[in-house]
Amino acid sequence: MGDIFTGDFGTAFNGQPVTELMARAFPVTLRLALIAVIIEIVIGIALGVITGLRRGRPVDSSVLMLTLVVISVPTFVTGTLAQYLLGVKWGWIPPAVSPAAPVGQLLLPGLVLALLSLAYVTRLTRASISENVRADYVRTAVAKGLPRARVNVRHLLRNSLIPVVTFLGTDVGNLMAGALVTERIFNIQGVGFQLWQGIVRQNSPTVVGFVTILVIVFLLANLIVDLLYAVLDPRIRYA
After folding, report:
1. What are the tens digits of pLDDT across the range 19-41?
2. Domains of the chain with CATH codes
């Protein structure tokens, strides 16, 4: 146990130090998780704002139905289907991703990894926007003659993002751990791949080492979220 605090996680199943596996695996998974987070933020928040401002209209119902379908379908189903159709049948992308693959080849795995969280981000943003659009501070800003676009961006969206940012903070750790399924489908040799190898081969140092780093990443992400609260809502102050 004492070696863990000094960064010595032992030896992996192939005789290599676990830290060497981490040095190769974590940059790959971090790129994949970063792509997934960007997709969640850009597409999820945009769809949430559109549906929140048009609640009850056809576009709102369509997006809600689509997110419900995405939530109900497991990641390994969407990933395998996307790999077969786009990689094997149509040949648009490589079916497997090499360790030194460019960012472009990680777009589809990143989308597959982000789909479930994207649906939740969309629904969270929609619920928060539709709730705050009737708030007093929004009505006051409109009554003062501010442009509607400025009201939506600087007042409505800024305050509505607090629950979304909370979810994104916890989701960073989930994406790192949830990459296990996506990386296995696309043969990406990242954290999920190495963690799966350690579990299958019953190599405790590999599992303990990678899980420890994932916990640290999760804690750091939540710390950043706590600091972002004060940026989004000036009323929040920390002693």
Report:
1. 887 888 888 888 888 888 899 88
2. 26-190 (1.10.3720.10)
